[in-house]
């Protein structure tokens, strides 16, 4: 799946991309605004998709001067299912958080990073996860937990999970010398621990 195009899991069309944007926002969008947010497709294509969605009743069109502003119809019978699909990235993060919270021991820090965090996934993209392991963790037990999480993420999404691991000592010792850690500080989506802790280790190495 593509977390940045969540409705593509059921409809790999422009209509799904438009709905995902509208369902994630309480206000209105003009065609031009949708074009800028989507960063793909022509304005004419977006306009045609909006007309189709208005005919289905799932989008409202409000005239503003000579133009139209479009908003998601949250009273539509399909609305709860559309918003559920539109929120798939958040749902994935919640599931990973819940899984990590049950670990013994828990990671010192964990984050989703790479294309899944930046919003540039394709259907073939891996889902990248950083895990920072406590120094005293039992390696066999930890390995079983990691393997289980990788299998779960792949089952939840259809994408391969690529897990990158560091110990706490490695993060403290190497800090900014590992470019991927700087990438995680900049773009990562925290699912365990505190972002400030990892950022602090990077700053220590810079000073």
From TrEMBL:
Give GO MF terms, alphabetically: nucleotidyltransferase activity
Chain ranges of the Polymerase nucleotidyl transferase domain: 109-139
Task: Could you list this entry's UniProt keywords, alphabetically sorted.
Answer: Transferase
- Matches recorded under Pfam families: NTP_transf_2
On the tree of life, the source organism's domain of life is Bacteria
Q: What is this protein called?
A: Nucleotidyltransferase domain-containing protein
């Amino acid at each position: 799946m593509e977390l940045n195009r969540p409705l593509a899991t059921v409809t790999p069309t422009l209509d799904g991309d438009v709905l995902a944007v509208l369902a994630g926002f309480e206000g209105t969008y003009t065609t031009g605004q949708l074009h800028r947010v989507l960063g793909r497709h022509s304005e004419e294509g977006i306009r045609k998709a909006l007309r189709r969605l208005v005919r289905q009743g799932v989008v409202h069109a409000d005239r503003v001067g000579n133009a139209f502003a479009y908003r998601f119809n949250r009273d539509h019978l399909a609305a709860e299912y559309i918003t559920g699909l539109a929120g798939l990235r958040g749902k994935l993060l919640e599931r990973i958080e819940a899984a990590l919270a049950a670990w013994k021991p828990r990671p010192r820090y964990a984050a989703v990073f790479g294309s899944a965090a930046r919003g540039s996934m394709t259907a073939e993209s891996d889902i990248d996860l950083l895990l920072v392991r406590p120094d005293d963790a039992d390696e066999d037990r930890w390995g079983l937990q990691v393997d289980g999480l990788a299998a779960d993420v792949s089952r939840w999404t259809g994408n391969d999970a690529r897990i990158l691991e560091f110990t706490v000592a490695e993060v403290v010792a190497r800090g900014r010398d590992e470019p991927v850690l700087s990438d995680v500080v900049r773009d990562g989506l925290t699912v365990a621990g505190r972002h400030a802790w990892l950022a602090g280790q990077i700053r220590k190495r810079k000073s």
